[in-house]
């Protein structure tokens, strides 16, 4: 895992697993297209100060495990990944225009799951230690 990010006001380690697919799940991410797609995603991550912890480009979808800043949001990052790579791939590989005549290379939507070095159970156990014996409010919001 990557180190924590810090600046003058915050410390964070935000990681996410992202998945998105080609439109109609066409298996077009092969050969030079696959290599160029990987290179474009790496360039976008470098420009946006996003660290790729691990990534996979399959023939019809992309997986990325990333570390990102707290000032960034996932939907904007995915929009940049999909938008910039779609535009460049279609410009550089004219054969894609025959299959994707509407200029939409990626399918609508994406999957996103937060990841980290601790589990939900670990967080809940830690927070439960703050409950006072007389706090029987029956709520998950504990008053210390």
From TrEMBL:
Gene3D superfamilies in the cross-refs: Transposase IS200-like
Superkingdom, taxonomy of origin: Bacteria
Coiled coil: none
SMART domains: Y1_Tnp
Limits of the Transposase IS200-like domain: 11-130
Pfam families in alphabetical order: Y1_Tnp (PF01797)
NCBIfam families: transpos_IS200
Name listed for the protein in its UniProt record: IS200/IS605 family transposase
Species assigned in the record: Autumnicola musiva
Source species taxonomy: Bacteria, Pseudomonadati, Bacteroidota, Flavobacteriia, Flavobacteriales
């Amino acid at each position: 895992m990557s180190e924590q990010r810090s600046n003058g006001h915050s410390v964070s380690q935000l990681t996410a697993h992202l998945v998105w697919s080609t439109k109609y799940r066409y298996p077009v991410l092969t050969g030079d297209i696959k290599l160029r797609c990987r290179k474009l995603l790496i360039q976008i991550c470098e420009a946006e100060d996003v660290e790729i912890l691990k990534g996979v480009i399959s023939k019809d979808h992309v997986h990325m495990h990333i570390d990102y800043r707290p000032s960034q949001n996932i939907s904007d990052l995915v929009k940049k990944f999909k938008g910039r790579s779609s535009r460049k791939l279609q410009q550089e590989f004219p054969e894609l225009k025959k299959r994707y005549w509407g200029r939409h290379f990626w399918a609508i939507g994406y999957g996103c799951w937060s990841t980290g070095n601790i589990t939900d159970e670990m967080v809940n156990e830690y927070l439960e230690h703050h409950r006072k014996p007389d706090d029987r409010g029956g709520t998950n919001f504990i008053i210390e």
